[in-house]
């Protein structure tokens, strides 16, 4: 850290806020176009066999006979204030339904995310430094990347839970289980970590390879600085790209994995999303889309702030 | 494009899949996929090479037919995403100014929606089908291509040869044909292969969730049933569906890696 604390660049912060609100409005517009322009909400709700009269009367009841512009403005205004209306299939407000499902998702996705990130950063650093490690890890990463998440989850569940019995096959603590909640979270978290590790380790390897080639490290080595401390320098210089990648993953953590939740029977956000799709519940899908977009934008801003705080080059605008 | 041995093998593998799929589509082989050929859950043998499923349908024929959907979704989705992202990205990068700011802002907002949410919302709005899968993949995957193409366009905009041609009065068509397309080609080609691998996986996921082609067999659909069958000791549907899926994506992945690593 520099001795003089840098002042926060308020104009840039203000600009980011304006862009964030605009982005959220744009997301709401996209959702609106998907559900009210690409598809007819009344037809979605009634299914394929509905008569044109029934569809028309539902359109009037849902207020779909008003002008396109009015509905668009109303929709966007409501969405950016996080008022999503009631879920059509469940009758309850969509917002609380979504928050309720967020708990189980975070319970396995957050540990999986931490584990996957730690393993990928360490693996990337090791691979960038040693050729043998690089061969092994990039082979493993290619294998993970080539395997669809469906296969990974099916196989992990079958081998580790079914055959070996190391973990409960499926279920969730709320369902009156005999094992500790931790047991149920462990295997989904491990699978999550593996799925995330596959692409991430390649990314981090590329980042560290670039940083390890930096000339200032030769200077340090020439002065006899031990490799262990050089790794510290590399890590600090690589903070920007690493944190950016971690930030990208935040949106994934919030939605969870649809496949993991389906196969392990976890009542999380991914499972709720799939259910909402099957029930053609537009309000719930909208709520999930806008809320996760908001979290993504906030997470991105947080990561930028962290990089700005840690990396003096960013503060001085040496690198962007 | 010069490729190393792995890349050539991968290309050969992809070609094999293409032959398999087009033959199945043309009606040359694997036609007995929607009629029972034996008892339910026959294990692999001479009667049915990969065994039969819960209804006694031949799994081998289903797997070969499944290659059709996977390849169409992969190629179509990747091509759509590269076309949209490449065009918008090159335009934003070359024009700069407000065009760039607006397009980049819109792309960031687009990218803020988690892909799974966008995919499933598109699937709901458009109804199940191969076209839905292609559109959904293109719509959700173009943002990465946009960024790469935009960066390349920005580099080109300040390049001496580009500005010299501009100063000499080169028209838009000349610039596009002589400078823009050649500059963007490596970026877009590698994006195409990477997105193909990704799109094949996305198709499997959508098929698994019941949003892909309802009238054709697909690997994702086979996988959706295989989890519970595996628990009962019926392992061959899982293998039949996952082996070709993994092999196809592996080919694309290896090709992507070896084309990215080629000497400058």
From TrEMBL, chain A:
Higher taxonomy: Bacteria, Pseudomonadati, Myxococcota, Polyangia, Nannocystales
Main localization (coarse): membrane
Keyword Membrane: yes
Segments crossing the lipid bilayer: 12-35, 106-128, 140-161, 181-198, 253-277, 283-310
Alphabetic keyword roster: Cell membrane, Membrane, Transmembrane, Transmembrane helix, Transport
Protein name, entry field: ABC transporter permease
Gene3D superfamilies hit by this protein: MetI-like
Domain ABC transmembrane type-1: start-end pairs: 124-316
Chain coiled-coil ranges: none
Residue span, ABC transporter type 1 GsiC-like N-terminal domain: 13-78
